[in-house]
Automatic annotation (TrEMBL):
Lineage, uppermost ranks: Bacteria, Pseudomonadati, Pseudomonadota, Gammaproteobacteria, Nevskiales
Species per Swiss-Prot/TrEMBL record: Stagnimonas aquatica
Transmembrane segments: 349-368, 375-396, 402-426, 447-467, 479-498, 534-554, 865-885, 892-916, 922-943, 971-992, 998-1022
Keyword presence, Iron: no
Molecular functions (GO terms): xenobiotic transmembrane transporter activity
UniProtKB keywords: Membrane, Transmembrane, Transmembrane helix
GO cellular-component term (any): plasma membrane
Name this polypeptide is given: Efflux RND transporter permease subunit
Coiled coil regions, renumbered to chain: none
Keyword hit for Transmembrane: yes
Length: 1047
């Protein structure tokens, strides 16, 4: 039994099925994870390394480069980035979308096991899912004291609480890759000694470190004693409080001897030459929340996690911590950065636009139909068709984001089209005198083949989108799914619900078409305009050639992703070259806080709702994040940070800008990066300085950010060993270097495990504050007595890099910047190539390279992919129509409306640009692909109807006129409902509206202009050869069937 016949005979079953679809659609909508955009994050792994007190160059040589060598050739790896700072670093591996990360993780761990021996005090490499240091964190939290809590340094007082309670709880949240205790000061066993006393007693730091390291338990194996087997253990470990009782030597008669030599009269204990205590490491960061010191925590997410679900889990964890362990310590945790707020607001805004669009589309139908029952039946096709799309998204494990919601909004008016055709055809048969059953059955049955062909054409143009790879494929796949499924579902609804509900809809008679004279007037106008052969030629040339020329001349510059600013302001700055964190916190932090407080307290405008002020020693960077109380004044806060809050800080470069909703792999989606790569760091720095100076000249209002810093800003005291003196003194270079480390940053002497926690044992001499004091520090030697550091080495003052960066195994300096919001990415890249690149290459070393990365490189790849897929969509469309008409000529006639609709989309973009900046970004480009499947429908209708009338023997002129008269109503209603459904996406302002506004404008503008001029272009094309005998049958569809389509 055919579907339409079953529906007519079983209306109750059809209605029940429709209600179930709506129910399942509602459930699927509620269960879909919410996200701003489809997941564009490329899978990443991060290998973290650490080496206490190591300089960047040492860490690069000993840890980073061997890891890079081991990771080369990993399957699916697209990029390898490395960073080496002071004492820490990492290697970030980026893979292509779809890579099996479980297998990759096993491969990475296996390769790490093949690394050569690491320095004894270096940390073992650790592997994390996600990227630890590129781009923004998934979330950031601040733990601060409550009123009445006198603690001013939470990092030192509450470190154990953070490590044992807070970090594990946050790490259990699904989707968390790693919890970073940025404000942490880990504990260590510190053995503090006086170098002068140590040397006077005949001991060296190296010897002292060996003795302390020997205080540990050692297993000697197993021994069989009779019937029993004993474990033999040397229990040499002592509690920290008892380490001072270790004997480091013997003294007598004023002479101190080595414990392995002859013994004196009394033992010399470790407590007599050193102080032993559990201490906190030096601070590597500080954070203030609204002027109050806090403990800063960040969270990295896994590549496949959902940001809204992740933040929901983090909020639940924060509530538990605040109600329990933190409250007991008079602490509270604030969620400092919550991206889910913006995501929910943006998605909620699209949902509102979707509802308003549905109401507008239904209102437009009401104006023309005026029959409440018929209108209700037609309106029901919208939620039913969209419900199928939502169910499909859930089944495919996609997300509810602004792209998928925009696809639903675009479909609101379009999915009514099939129902309009079926209902119109049924009404025609009723007017001819058939009974309701026969009219419904024949009317629905006759149009189904044509509707199926039309649906197939609309869906087929999305096939290239479904197979797109990379970021473009991730972005557009949801749009293709929602629009394709909703279009296909609209045909199913038209075949079932419309016939089933038809008897009820027609119970009160057939509503008369009060606008019939409009359709006749439109047909007469088009016929008069194309009456003469010269006029027809003029219409064809003017519209096709003119539209093509207009598109080429007026198309905006291409861009990557739209500008979508948030309401938070980021002020970034670098610490003074060579400055230490403690001095910056003591001298600069109070100044910044004093400048911010009047705005936070509301004494000055623009008032600030809350702010965070942080600085980090590792990268020498700091940040102020501020939120305006009035979101409309966010741009004023940007100006405030630039011109007042961060202005005039000594030796500090600062800039401020708004955050962005859109990011690619954690970076701003509009960031352009210049990579300068080569072995000579000085030459790269010189070239990067030229780029930093020239970019603002070429593109005003930009703030280039070089990374790493473009100068050897880290002061160094280089101690060159005096080989002759060291050898004569009975020492070697290793002993001297270990002693220098003990005198300065601390010598690692092993680890201490108390049963719960593993602590580093650090041997550290008393602090020195000048190179002269360092030179006077003594060192006991076997053959030359006490020698000073200045006698064993030559000290010189110089500078070195504070950080090193490597990309794909090569040293790299990156100069990144974001074009102004009113400039497209393509225009910015063009200016850089013409005005900046030649000057940079002029100073770039011969063995170095310059390349573009970030969105600059992504844009070029995306443009190629979009061009290829647009051409493929055109080919698919042409082939389908040729098969439908059985005529290449008629297919070509329909294709000629595409330049007109494309010009309409470009015109809409230009019109939109008069009110706000609008570039031709990737999301906007997909609108032109959507147009292909929409604007040809009107042309298909006219060609089908004309050829059918000619086949019946009608003269071509009469056939064209009758086609115009019978197809005017469905063409106008279809265009009207589609545009009204999209209108809220274009005109309604709101957070994230910039993401889809250009896309909606292209589709709406292309449909309006395309439909308007198609009304004149298609008669001109169809009337070619009008004086000849009516053409032979060119369409495969029977005349009665085409007449019954009722469009």
């Amino acid at each position: 039994m055919r579907l339409e016949k079953f529906s007519i005979g079983n209306p109750a079953a059809v209605i029940a099925a429709a209600l179930l679809v709506l129910l399942f659609g509602w459930i699927a909508m509620a269960r879909l994870p919410i996200q701003l955009l489809p997941d564009t994050q490329q899978p990443q792994l991060f290998i973290q390394v650490g080496w206490r007190e190591a300089a960047p160059s040492e860490l690069e040589e000993a840890l980073i480069e061997p890891i890079e060598e081991a990771m080369r050739g990993l399957p699916g790896m697209k990029e390898m980035r490395a960073n080496a700072g002071r004492g820490f670093g990492g290697v970030a591996l980026t893979f292509g979308i779809g890579t099996d990360m479980t297998r990759v993780m096993l491969d990475v761990v296996s390769r790490l096991n093949t690394l050569p021996s690491l320095p004894p005090d270096a940390d073992e490499p650790r592997v994390f899912a996600g990227d630890n240091w590129q781009g923004a964190n998934a979330a950031s939290m601040l733990v601060r004291p409550l009123p009445g809590n006198p603690v001013t340094d939470p990092a030192s007082v509450y470190q154990k609480l953070m490590e044992e309670v807070v970090e594990p709880r946050l790490a259990r949240v699904p989707g968390v890759s790693r919890v970073n205790l940025e404000g942490g000061r880990p504990r260590e066993v510190r053995v503090s000694f006086d170098p002068h006393r140590l040397a006077a007693l005949g001991l060296t730091p190296s010897r002292l470190a060996e003795l302390v390291a020997g205080a540990r338990d050692v297993s000697a194996g197993f021994a069989n004693v009779g019937r029993r087997q004993f474990t033999v253990r040397f229990t040499g470990k002592e509690p920290v409080s008892q380490l001072g009782e270790l004997i480091v030597g013997w003294s007598g008669g004023g002479k101190t001897t080595d414990p392995l030599g002859s013994q004196g009269e009394r033992p010399l204990y470790l407590r007599e030459v050193a102080d032993i205590q559990i201490a906190y490491q030096d601070a590597r960061a500080f954070t203030y929340r609204n002027g109050v010191p806090g403990y800063y925590i960040t969270v990295n997410r896994t590549s496949e996690s959902n940001i809204v679900g992740l933040l929901d889990g983090i909020k639940e964890a924060i509530a538990e911590l605040n109600a329990g362990p933190l409250a007991q310590e008079k602490l509270v945790m604030d969620l400092s950065w919550d991206a889910s707020v913006y995501v929910r607001r943006a998605v909620g805004f699209v949902q509102e636009s979707l509802i308003i669009g549905i109401l507008l589309a239904v209102g437009g139908l009401w104006y023309f139909l005026r029959g409440p029952r018929a209108l209700l039946v037609l309106a029901a096709t919208i939620p039913l068709s969209l419900a199928f799309a939502v169910i499909t998204l859930h089944a495919l494990e996609r997300t509810l984001n602004v792209i998928s919601l925009a696809g639903l909004a675009f479909s609101t008016g379009i999915v009514i089209d099939a129902a309009l055709i079926v209902q119109g055809n049924i009404l025609r048969y009723v007017q001819e005198g058939k009974n309701a059953w026969d009219a419904t059955l024949d009317g629905a049955r006759e149009v189904i083949p044509a509707l199926f062909a039309s649906m197939l054409t609309s869906v087929a143009i999305f096939l290239p989108v479904l197979f797109m790879e990379g970021l473009e494929g991730q972005l557009f796949k949801d749009l293709a799914i929602t629009m394709s499924v909703s279009h296909a579902a609209s045909l199913l609804v038209a075949m079932t619900v419309i016939p089933a509900a038809n008897r009820w809809a027609l119970a009160r008679g057939i509503p008369a078409d009060s606008h019939g004279h409009w359709w006749q007037a439109m047909a007469r106008l088009a016929m008069r305009a194309t009456e003469a052969p010269a006029a027809r030629a003029a219409w064809i040339v003017a519209l096709v050639v003119g539209a093509t020329a207009f598109t080429l001349l007026m198309r905006p510059k291409p861009d990557y992703l739209p500008v979508a600013p948030t309401e938070n302001v980021w002020g970034n700055f670098r610490l003074p070259p060579g400055g230490n964190l403690a001095t910056f916190q003591r001298e600069v932090a109070p100044v910044v806080i004093a400048r911010l407080q009047p705005y936070y307290e509301g004494q000055k405008e623009p008032a600030i709702k809350y702010y965070n002020f942080s600085a980090f020693a590792g990268g020498g960077q700091g940040v102020v994040v501020a939120y305006a109380r009035d979101p409309e004044k966010t741009q004023e806060v940007v100006k405030l940070l630039k011109e007042e809050i961060l202005a005039g800080l000594p030796d500090t470069a600062a800039f401020a800008n708004r955050g962005s909703l859109l990011s690619v792999d954690g970076n701003n989606a509009r960031e352009i990066r210049l990579w300068l790569q080569g072995p000579e760091l000085e030459g790269l720095m010189a070239a990067a300085k030229v780029a930093e100076q020239e970019i603002p000249k070429a593109i005003p209002d930009t703030f280039p950010q070089p990374y790493p810093p473009l100068e050897f800003s880290q002061p160094e005291l280089q101690l060159k060993p005096d080989e002759w003196r060291i050898s004569r003194a009975g020492l070697d270079r290793n002993t001297v270097s270990r002693s220098l480390r003990a005198y300065t940053g601390g010598l690692w002497a092993g680890e201490y495990f108390d049963g719960n926690e593993r602590l580093d044992i650090i041997l550290k001499g008393s602090e020195w504050t000048s190179p002269e004091q360092l030179a006077e520090l003594p060192l006991m030697t076997p053959q030359a007595g006490i020698q000073t550091v200045g006698e064993l080495t030559r000290i010189q003052t110089t500078v070195g890099p504070s950080e090193l960066a490597r990309i794909n195994g090569r040293r790299t300096i990156t100069v990144g910047f974001e074009p102004p919001e009113d400039m497209s990415l393509d225009e910015a890249i063009e200016r850089i190539r013409e005005q900046v690149e030649p000057k940079v290459r002029a100073v770039l070393p011969d063995n170095a390279q310059l390349s573009y990365a970030g969105s600059a490189n992504d844009l070029q790849e995306a443009l190629k992919a979009m061009a290829n897929n647009f051409a493929l969509a055109l080919l698919i469309l042409f082939a389908l129509m040729a098969a439908l008409f059985r005529s290449v000529w008629d297919s070509l006639l329909v294709m000629l409306v595409i330049p007109v609709s494309t010009a309409g989309g470009i015109a809409a973009l230009r019109l939109l640009g008069l009110f706000s900046f609008q570039a031709l970004d990737l999301l906007t480009m997909i609108g032109f692909i959507i147009l292909l499947g929409l604007v040809v429908n009107a042309a298909i209708l006219l060609v089908d109807q004309t050829r059918a009338r000619e086949h019946a023997g009608m003269a071509r002129r009469d056939a064209v006129q009758q086609a115009l008269e019978t197809r005017a109503r469905p063409i106008v209603l279809s265009t009207l409902t589609a545009v009204l459904g999209m209108l809220p996406l274009i005109v309604m302002p709101g957070l994230g509206s910039a993401v889809y506004r250009g896309l909606a404008a292209v589709v709406a503008g292309g449909m309006v202009i395309g439909t308007l001029f198609t009304w004149f272009l298609m008669p001109a094309l169809l009337r070619i050869g009008e004086a000849r005998k009516p053409a032979a049958r060119l369409a495969s569809t029977p005349v009665s069937e085409l007449e019954a389509q009722g469009r």
